[in-house]
Design brief:
This protein has helices at 40-55, 59-69, 79-94, 168-176, 195-204, 216-219, 281-288, 325-328, 363-383, 407-415, 417-423, 448-457, 467-475, 494-500, 524-531, 536-554, 562-570, 573-583, 590-615, 621-636, 669-676, 680-708, and strands spanning 8-9, 13-17, 98-107, 111-120, 124-125, 154-162, 185-189, 209-213, 276-279, 316-323, 330-340, 345-355, 392-399, 424-429, 438-443, 505-511, 655-657, 665-667. It is an alpha/beta fold. Strands 3-11-13-12-14-16-15 form a seven-stranded mixed sheet, sandwiched between helices. A seven-stranded mixed sheet has the order 5-4-10-6-7-8-9. It binds zinc ion.
Amino acid sequence: MSIATVVGRLHRLPLGFTLLVAPLLGAQQSTGASMPGYSAAAVASERALEADAIARPDPARARAHSRTLSAETHVSGTPAQARTRDYVIAQMKAMGLETEVRQYDVFLPLPTAVHVWRVSPGMKELPLAEPPVAGDPTSALAQYPTVNGYSGQGDVTADVVYVNYGLIEDYAQLDSLGISVKGKIAVARYGRSFRGIKAREAEKHGAAALLIYSDPQDDGYVRGDVYPNGPMRNRNGVQRGSVFNGDGDPATPGYAAKPGEPRIPESRMGVPLIPVVPISYGNASELLEGLRGHEIPQSWQGGLPFRYHVGPGPVRARVQVTDDRATKGTKPIYDTFGFVRGSEFPDELVIVGGHRDAWGPGTADNVSGTVSVLEAARAVADAIKAGHRPKRTIVFATWDAEEWGLLGSTEYVEDDSLRLMRGGVAYLNQDVAAQGARFGGGGSPSLRPTLRDIAREVPDPNGKGSVYAEWRRASAVADTAEPAMGDPGGGSDFAGFYNHLGMPIAEWGFGGPGGVYHSQYDDFNWMSKFGDPGFVYHAAAAKIAAGMVLRLANAEIIPYDYVEFARTMQRYLPAIDRALASHQWNASTAALRAAIGGMEQEAASFSAARDDALAAGTLPRERQAAVNTALLGVERALARPEGLRTRPWFRNLIYVADENNGYANMVFPSVNEAIRANDERLTTSEIADLAQRFEAATRAIASARAALR
Ligand SMILES: [Zn+2]
């Protein structure tokens, strides 16, 4: 997941994004005079430090990092990806940071060959590779084969069936038309769901292979001029990407993939068994144009210049995929860390990270995020040389193998879970930090006011005002509202921290039109011409990162906003009420509503008491520590140790990715999955369970308030 034009999930879906009703103004809106969590005496020096750090990220350096890190395709498990590790570590050492590399040995089969033929009419091998384009030297370099990550191996020949987006409802529609994909080669278009769901559904319905193509309606010529004349996907562009639906190394579910740990057999990993191959719309035309059979439902027509049909046949195809799993399926991956030890609360961690791996040169996804982390690290390292060591430890991380299923960050979270449970203050994610000019942000509602506040301090590169002011202008929100922010469902490296541990997270980035997601053409030339020609938005993302880590690391009281959190939660109740009413159940949200109301009240009392205490002067260190320890327990109380019934690894009960879609976000998943399962008794008990957890979170805020005195 990451940020698109507003807030989307670039890791998985470049053009879709979740937008909810804009929240009311948060309880906190710091002005020049006050800053939540800071005593009056500390505000001026913190503002000066932040201003110093925010001034440092530099477009010219960002451009140089970007050029180096996107000089070659750097897929996890390859020598090129080991070179990005070495580059980042050398840079962070040169900044004077302490560094660490952690290695995990994960299941990561790399393809050895891929072929697709149209067998009839007219035998033709389809040219799968993305050809070089004029004026773009990187496009001519070695590229990663067009095989989806964790595709099965196989060699199958069969009739072709068009399955629209390959959603659960698309197969239901095919069933109603009397059409089966059993033994057939399914062709699905990208979009509307995570591609892993498409693979799962194709396999579940008996398809022998799946081809997934980028329809021009989604990110090609229907949307704009295509590369290299414009930013959108051309007829040869391919979206690679993983089709694994889990998080973390498939071979070590729930524990870190360290040497000597047991590995589960491949049959239990939940990776697809059938070959899954991404293709361009040029190649998809070769298969779809000749399809006959059933008239399609009108909504199944895409942007190619002929009438689509479902088939099966008469077009037949052959799909062949082989990989190296028999001899070397397990490979090392490497996370990197640069850190500044905290002076007062060294065990409390403020982490900013981004994934370092890609499917190609990856200039947007995710060299831009890596560059943001690097430039933020340099800004902070230089700003604190004047003697302002942060109170808390700041960690600058880059993750490996995010693209395969969040492997690097997940293995790290599983490795360090006790430390993170105790001291993890926030995880800030940078995934596709800059590929356009439009700001988007999101995360846990507890951190949203801080992100808005830092966005007020960072000038927008367009010169017209702050990032915040431009964000407001572009969102065209009413004076009484804030721009909408994204909810953390899943799909990028925050998932381990958020979904598994219940740590607060935030993310942001600058989006824009693009059709090179997971393509060889996501490269330096594309970025220099279309994405961020001046690399000014790369620098702006880094400025926000620098401001965020300093604000969170130096606060006397961590500035979580549980008033905004509780208000945001209240907005989710009417939809549950409607669902209960439509089932005509007696189940009620009254207890949950009361618990969330209680949280808002307690949070308001706490903020007032905090502000009063800090207005009177700073608190003794021990009292700060006691308040903060209590605050660290608030969102953890909303994570259930045994997890969701459907997915025990997912413990956070506030937001999760919908398991039937992978992109769509589900709020209060324990309750909403019980409703979906049509189980009134379970729904009733899940509402009661969630209400109790909100009460526990409220008690944590109350003990923070008690510790202030
Ligand atoms: Zn990404």
